[in-house]
Automatic annotation (TrEMBL):
Keywords on record: Cell membrane, Membrane, Teichoic acid biosynthesis, Transferase
Protein name: CDP-glycerol glycerophosphotransferase, TagB/SpsB family
Topology within the bilayer: Peripheral membrane protein
Organism annotation: Pedobacter quisquiliarum
Family: Belongs to the CDP-glycerol glycerophosphotransferase family.
Principal location: membrane
A molecular function GO annotation: CDP-glycerol glycerophosphotransferase activity
SUPFAM superfamilies recorded: UDP-Glycosyltransferase/glycogen phosphorylase
Pfam short name (any one): Glyphos_transf
GO CC terms in record: plasma membrane
Gene Ontology annotations of biological process type: teichoic acid biosynthetic process
Compartments, record wording: Cell membrane
Highest taxon of source: Bacteria
Amino acid sequence: MLVHYKLFRAEHIIQDSTYTWLIGNFSILQLWHGNGFKNSALLDTTNAPKKLVLLRKAYKQYRMISAASDAHQELMIRSFENENVAITGSPKNDVFFDDAAVFQEIKVRYGLDKFDKIYAYTPTFRDKGAFEPFNVQFWGLLNDWLEGNNIAFVVKKHPWDKTLKVPDQYKNILDLSDRIDDSQELMLISDLLISDYSAIVTDFAITGKPIIYYFHDYDNYTKMRSFYYDLKTVLPGPFIYDGETLLTYLKDLSWFTTPAYQLEFQKFLKTFHTYMDGDSSKRVLEEMKKLSSGTKKQFS
């Protein structure tokens, strides 16, 4: 009852996902949870017709939707059928501009401070079917190389993932999915990111560190989900499809520093981020003030 009482009295409610059950005379500020590639909200082709009716009703309540760039703003307008989209940057990414001392504290908390480097693997969930990105032989070869170079390979599974199995017999391969609630913390301390179709790569790109796109099930996955973009056009790569090639790219990161790659990386970064200054939260606050003062359009 206390939660409902607070909702009824609230002037603003901030969300990062969709809630169709909220009732009250308040402004909803939608920060959304990812600046990614998969069609979402009303453009998500997996939504049933009845759900779309509920979503359209909910989205009409949005007084401000946060976007990270011009391209993202356009997609948010289409996805929510709502024009109240402001380019503020994502507040959750302000943490990348914190003092470096914070990063060391995170390493200590998760027992990762003994490693020279941390490589993160953060795949998105699969809607159906088994998810086995690596075979038994690869896990062994990977750990041998990690141990020889004092590198931790940290796995952070998507909260909806139910099938990815990570072996627990290796010292340098660590599944911390149940310990790390906030993926942003892992990104802060990681020296390299391996992911696939997840929006997490656009956040991590702000760090300027290497990203590898592991697309071992690309053909099957793109049949299950629809996308805003042609991934192989908008992403800078490299696109890897098997464990052997992945290990080769991990052992030699010279591809990341080539002028040709850096040109594509910077193009990718500018497409998804207008601001990279740590002030996105301040810009969201300014939008909230406009709503409170009545200077901003109240309804879409």
